Amino acid sequence: MYRLNISGQKVLSTSNSSPFSSITCGPSGRAIAEAIDPDLLNAVQAHLNMERQAHASYFAAAIWFAERELRGFSRFFRDESNSEHVHAAKFAEYIIARGQSVVLQVVEAPLQSWASPADVMATAFQMEVDVTASLQQLYSMAERVNDTRTTVFLDPIVEMQTQSEHEFAHLLGRVKFADNQAAALLLIDNELDQGNNKPASLQG
Ligand SMILES: [Fe+2]
């Protein structure tokens, strides 16, 4: 029989009546409130890595635009890249909160060559769609195993992700509309330099 000591490590309990004796601990010795389904945990770990992959991809896009003097686009992707890192951190925190250990996987070299700004935006939009699909998969897995903690954790993330898709679709549309014309791209670049990346608002 094990219990947690003051540093959170599993130690042999000398008394069966200790309140610690009934607490299950994770691989780092952290107390677990509710065990997480192993397949769901693996999927959460894989999703965390997908966010890190998105961080790398958007950093590559920020670099691509910086090399071409489009500083507004570069700034937009720099900020997106930073947000992806924050998303990965959220998942890491969640894994820890569930008493599990975070397993960081390999981040592949991101795509770094594109023919046009529209191609970069198309790649980015597709990445957003893929991230949403992965979140939806996590959500249904969590529902299947009645893991309410995970669905509650995912709710605001799914909402943010849907908003993000909307913004990327908007920017992709504007860049396509510019049709690779320098003057039009510079206008969009200027908007992005001022942090203006939101779709039209119809709610007044
Ligand atoms: Fe993300």
Based on the model shown, name its key terms.
204 residues; mainly alpha; Ferritin; two-stranded antiparallel sheet; 5 helices; 4 strands; 63% helix; elongated; binds fe (ii) ion
Description:
The chain is built from five helices and four strands; from the N terminus they run ββββααααα. The radius of gyration is 22 Å and the shape is elongated. The protein is mainly alpha-helical and 204 residues long. β1 and β2 form a beta hairpin. It has helices at residues 38-67, 71-97, 117-144, 148-178, 182-193; strands at residues 2-4, 10-12, 24-25, 31-32.
In short:
This protein has five helices and four strands, in the order E-E-E-E-H-H-H-H-H. By secondary structure, the protein is mostly helical.
Top CATH class of the largest domain: Mainly Alpha
The major pleated sheet works out as:
2 strands, antiparallel
CATH architecture of the largest domain: Up-down Bundle
Helix content: 55-70%
Strand order of the largest sheet: 1-2
Strand-residue proportion = under 5%
C-alpha end-to-end distance: 62 Å
- What is the averaged pLDDT score? 93
Element string (H = helix, E = strand): EEEEHHHHH
> Ligands in the structure?
fe (ii) ion
Summed up, the domain count is 2
Low-confidence runs: none
Could you give me the name of the CATH homologous superfamily of the largest domain? Ferritin, core subunit, four-helix bundle
Shape: elongated
The oligomeric status of these chains comes to single chain
Q: Which structural class is indicated by helix and strand composition?
A: mainly alpha
Please tell me how large the radius of gyration is: 22 Å
